Amino acid sequence: MKIGIVCYPTFGGSGVVATELGKALAEKGHQVHFITYSPPVRLNFLSGNLFYHEVSVSDYPLFEYPPYELVLASKLVDVVKYEKLDLLHVHYAIPHASAAYMAKQILASQGIHVPFITTLHGTDITLVGKDPSFEPVITFAINQSDAVTAVSESLKEDTYKNFPSVKKEIQVIPNFICLDDYKFESSKCQKKMYAPNGERLLIHVSNFRKVKRVEDVLRIFDKVRKVIPAKLVLIGDGPERGNIEKLCRELDTCSDIRSLGKIVNPEQILPIADLFLLPSETESFGLAALEAMASKVPVISTNSGGLPEVNVNGFSGFMSNVGDIDEMANNAISILQDEVILDQFRANAYRQAEKFDITKILPMYEELYKAVLKKSKIMMK
Ligand code: GMT
Question: Does pTM surpass 0.85?
Fold first, then answer.
């Protein structure tokens, strides 16, 4: 198949999932065309089946807000037409689904029929999508998609709840990891850089937005280190960075915390951690938690959104209500203070991650593509 993938090319989960999906499809022999405003950060893989088409937005002075959606739609028309794509798969509803709809209509007016699939990722529905000014467009674009997927049951429910006029059937296809990429063993040398005296190493990876509650990460860590010698590594960057630096000074924890900024391949550092913290306000899925589990790192998370579909309470880690930092800290301590318990949780976390290996999830997307193509050919007859 010739597949066009549209996504945000950044470190966010939706871009990571879209890129890893494209890489896996290319490895299976499909031709994959990424259509984005810059090369996806995870596109660190060479294949004759992978193509990149840049969407460049004009900065004409009249445009206070450059019309990205229109440029993207035009680019989609161009790529579908000249590369003879079979279908488009857009990740994150805003504005990718409506741009794909527009491209589909333009192409139809020229006698070219291309179906598009929309994958909902989370904040497009739970945060951004809830802004009433987006509602009519998102509802329309979802209903007009040839197929719609959501990354968890929870996100599917949220979509129907937040967008009552959405009538389209939504199929849940969970996020995935490629376990073959997680063969890095925890290196004692590398761990020593961050935990020089054998301290327990806690880790948090996110885009440091409010929804991630990174302040809770620091407060949980502060409670843990008062009981067990521990260090914290922060990976990622974002708007909350300033507040975090302020709080770490207030708590006097800065000497025990290292911020490493954005890292392209977290699987190279995750194995050195003993515990992963994800106290988010909400997560449609929590790909970062799954990446930790694939690295044999147990997870302390909240129980909101799709997290209970990923983290299993008392098995791969523990879950608590949003903001319950006391319980999260106590659970962290209960795992970290005993080597045997920690090893058991590590093994369990990996077993749970195995359920989301790409070998199990990729065929779901391929089946969906085939079904969509079949239906669209029948409709054209
Ligand atoms: O807000 C983010 O965390 C980024 C966002 C994205 O779309 O890039 O992540 C969302 O999609 C990920 C991939 O499907 C999910 O694993 C994250 O849980 C989800 N984030 C939220 O729901 C907050």
Answer: yes
